[in-house]
Amino acid sequence: MRYKSCRLLEHGIYIYHDPGTQRLIAGHCCNSDHLNFNDRLYLYFDLKNEKLDWDYIFKQKRKLRENAKMGIYPSQCQGCFELTEREWDDEDYISHLTAGHIMKCNSRCIYCPTGRIKEWHEREQEYDIKPLVEDLIAKNLLRFDGSLRFVGGEPTLIKEFDWLTDLFSSHNVPEIYVPTSGIRLSKSLCNALEKVNSAAIVISVDSGRQETFQKIKGTRFYNVVLKNMKTYLSHSRKKDFVISKYILLPNYNDSHEEIDKWLKTCKNIGLVEVQFDAEHSVSSSEECENKHYINRTLKMLRYTEQSAKEYNIKVNSYLAFMNRAKAIYQQQIEKYNAVEDTIYENILDINEHELEKMVQDDKFSPKRRIKVEYTKQNQDKIMKLLRLGFDFDVTLNRFILDKYIIEILKTSNSTIMSKNPVIKLLIKILYLYQTCV
User: Fold this and answer.
1) Alpha-carbon distance values, 337 to 286, 294, 306, 326 (Å)
2) What is the pLDDT of residue 32?
3) Farthest CA pair distance, the chain
4) Within 10 Å of residue 169's Cβ, how many Cβ atoms?
5) Which residues are paired to 309 by β-bridges?
6) What domains lie within the chain, and their CATH numbers?
7) Do residues 250 and 296 make contact, with C-beta atoms less than 8 angstroms apart?
8) Please, what is the angle between helix 294-310 and helix 323-338, to 10°?
9) DSSP assignment of 166-218
10) What pLDDT does residue 362 have?
11) pLDDT of amino acid 54
12) Which residues of 104-115 are buried (b: 16+ CB within 10 A; e: fewer)?
């Protein structure tokens, strides 16, 4: 019968270790994880103490199926990109498995709650889903015409990771998705990349150099990750199976210089697709328009998309396809494009703490510009304002070449000018040089 439904509601199972409650849970999908715990699309809330009953699971799925035929969906599914209209069957089986039953990780990413809490990222695996999968197979309830997906923790540290990957790839599963730190090279994943029709090995590198990588990831394995990405790429049937991800983090990697180095590194490795994301408080909050760095994030996304064209690299924005974030993102684009530049004077006189509070309270126009003469004395304050989403019309009365000038020059909405014809020429040459490197 043809109707709008979701492949995960129809035939998916999601096993997940929730870091907040420390419960092992089973549900339909992971797309409702942004909701409060009790509002999520879960079937079992404590698998360690409850016996998983397939009859119960399929009974719940049948209820959702009958409602979907009448156009009725769970409120949690509102606006989800997974809802599609097509011919659906009425059979009971699982063809989409998502495994996220581990918290242990070999990175200490500063943007990840697991990375910040030692007891979480060092927590050993407490549950093995191999018997669960074997039970599905024994009961003829598992089909391999869907997908195998992982979340974590670090998926490659799951004890049965290789077993699951080999099992599904040997049965020619069409799709495999693995977000990974890239530190551990998986031979089973290399083999899978040679077989599957569609794969996404997403590695959050977040930088184009060792120093930044170490600050964000908390490890020294930058070169190891790059080497492993090359290896995965060499085994991939298609180059877009391996994706480098860049999560924009305020005061760490939110500069054109960092993004340029990252894109250049991706090109050298041979990647053809990358993913751009924002720090969680920007990308997922319903109030993200009031955050410090929302305008900065949008500008850096546009800069990344433009710069990537020079390398023939496709940019897949996480902001643009997350269902809730997509609406917020589009709303911000429309709001941003609808306003005119607003010139602010004497803003350098405001102290940093008060300035941050004013930005937080949304006291400024989305398109905010400052006309200022650049000096050594005000360069730190200028960079602070640049990070807070301000643009500049900078006047140089004498030629200065430093990292701050380069950063302003590479900010597409800022300009540097001078009345001195020699300095104007030098600025033009510098700009042309920066666009070529």
Assistant:
1) 20, 14, 17, 16
2) 62
3) 81
4) 21
5) none
6) 2-336 (3.20.20.70), 342-436 (3.40.50)
7) yes
8) 90
9) HHHHHTT-SEEEEEE-S-SPPHHHHHHHHH-SEEEEEEE---SSHHHHHHHHS
10) 67
11) 92
12) bbbbbbbbbebb
Nearest to 355 by CA among 382, 319, 330: 382
pLDDT at residue 239, rounded to an integer: 92
For the record, the structure tokens of 205 come out as: 């590198």
| The model's pTM | 0.74
State the pLDDT at residue 344.
Answer: 84
Burial class of residue 395, CB neighbours in 10 A (0-12, 13-18, 19+):
middle
Query: Do the beta carbons of residue 295 and residue 389 sit within 8 Å?
Result: yes
The residue to which tokens 């640049």 are assigned: 386
Query: What long-range pairs does 412-415 form, CB within 8 A, spacing at least 24?
Result: 412/299, 412/302, 412/303, 412/306, 413/299, 413/367, 414/386
- Tell me what pLDDT residue 250 has: 76
Q: Residues of the chain whose pLDDT is less than 70?
A: 20, 31-40, 115-116, 279-295, 318-337, 360-362, 366, 387, 410-412, 433-437
Whether the Cβ atoms of residue 201 and residue 232 lie closer than 8 Å to each other: yes
